[in-house]
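Minutes, project check-in
Item: structure for the 599-residue chain
Input as provided by the requester:
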Amino acid sequence: MPEIIIVSTILLVTIVLFAWGRFAPEGVALSAALALFLTDLIDHQELLKGFANPAIVTIAGLLILGNALERAGIIRHIADFLQKLAGKGETRLLLTSTIAPGLLSGIINIVAAVSVFIPALLRIALKTNIQPARLLLPMAYVAMAGASLTLIGASHNLVVNDILQEKTGESLGFFSFTLLGLALVTIAVIYSLLTARWLLGKKEDSSIQESQTRALIKLYALHERIWELTVKEGIKKPINFTRENGLAMVALIRKEGNRPHISGEMEFNEGDTLLVSGRCERAKKLTDRFAALELVGSPSYRDDFSAGDSELIEVLVPPHSAAAGKTAQELELLEKHHLHLIGLWRNEKPIRTDIDTLKLQAGDALLLYGQKRYTRQFNVSPDFLWLKQPSKTSVTKAAKKRAMWIALIFASVIGVAALNLLPVSIAALGGAILVVAIGALSVKQAYAAIQWDTLILIGAMLAFGPALTNSGASSWFAELISDQMQAYGPYAILSAIAITTFLLTQALHNAAAAIIMTPVALQVASQMGYQPQAFAVVVLLSASLSLLLPVGHPAPLLVQRPGSYSTKDYMRFGIGLGILSLPAIIGLTPLLFPLTSTG
């Protein structure tokens, strides 16, 4: 019993720290695994075993393959094609924008499936005068349901399958729960069609009728933070805007029309026009300091915002990004990429002052300004995702030539895994090696495509499996569920497991929730004499329903800024979908995976 108390305490503290969000999830998971080892609940082999789990290799390989598909423009091409099919009607658009990502997320990384549709849907919303909020969250939720279409659709699918195989010797097939995934996708699509226009996007949004550039100017209130200065006579003393004056140089336009490269310290000629960002009082102090400068005021509220060859772009910091925790200066956005950070969106409001030294967070949107030759060269993957792309973007000719081979490699991985010719981990690893070998990705790009924090989190959390078993906690929790629900029948037991998993996955990473609940579910099945696969699948499907908070899964977080969603929006829209999805999981799973042996 003392061991049960210890492991339960460590588990409870871990859940609280995950939900609090103050510390990095992978750091919390590593600390919990170390605590299990130090309390003698697991030995050193059990501590490290999770990092050698086949699921870790599979996830890494699939992330590399997904990144190769994205860089080759294959996923974007699919999104553009579907955009043409969508038309202008809201119902038809909603159908296309949910079904397509839902089906794609069954075979590619869900973050890639969602992120590529965000800019496409924003463009459509602007053209059709449909509020983006009515499209983006339904798209993300259907994509999460679509991750239940195949074994490789989500990381927690692989984790559940590996725990099932380790505990029982049985495993799930590549398409064994596809029909259940289709049921969840259908429910999510129909629910979105019936409720999105009523539950989402009720707030007036006049920026929908404006160009995307002008909408960004208004959204970030740039007319309150961007100022034009003219140079009345040459200034030979270099001025460092950021260090000396708290202003950022956005653009410099020479009288003859050319735009020199902007560096930290610059000299200015008579007739130059300077565009700077910062507070008005700081701009006035600068003109007081340098008599040759004259404050003209805020630039005209024009559609292009910038003259000549510069433009605005907007990117998002996704979950697991290496950019999180770093500043714009540390990322060398100006020095390396020649892009100026002029606005940052966080917690539903813009930040425009001293943003170069502000540490970025997952979910932040960055408004960048630069010459078109630099905006088009800016490679967002894997640290950022596009929200507003450059005016013209194109895939390189070399990438286009390799696209066919990348698609063939990916299809081969799917076919080999589906036919059980090779373990899915070996197939994914082989595919990842091949895309690097043909030059679709460099070794450095392949490493960067891997979400290392997710792999660390999963590997560390897998230590709870043997800890729950060794301490007897798994049996104790299983007995508690069985004793309370046995009188009400097997569906009541499945309901208890599904609802518990659903609640855990709202604040935890869904893989963490699955790791906690799968051993308990399998122990319940063993004690009650039921087939284990049904219980494992209920955990797998319930863990995919991260519907009530934006932090439970990367997909809802990605659409928060472009959809201007509040936490209430997630709760209001997600609770109904959860109420419909959970009974479907509980009722349909035993039909496909019988609870008792038929032999």
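Outcome recorded: The longest strand covers residues 310-316.
No further action items on this chain.
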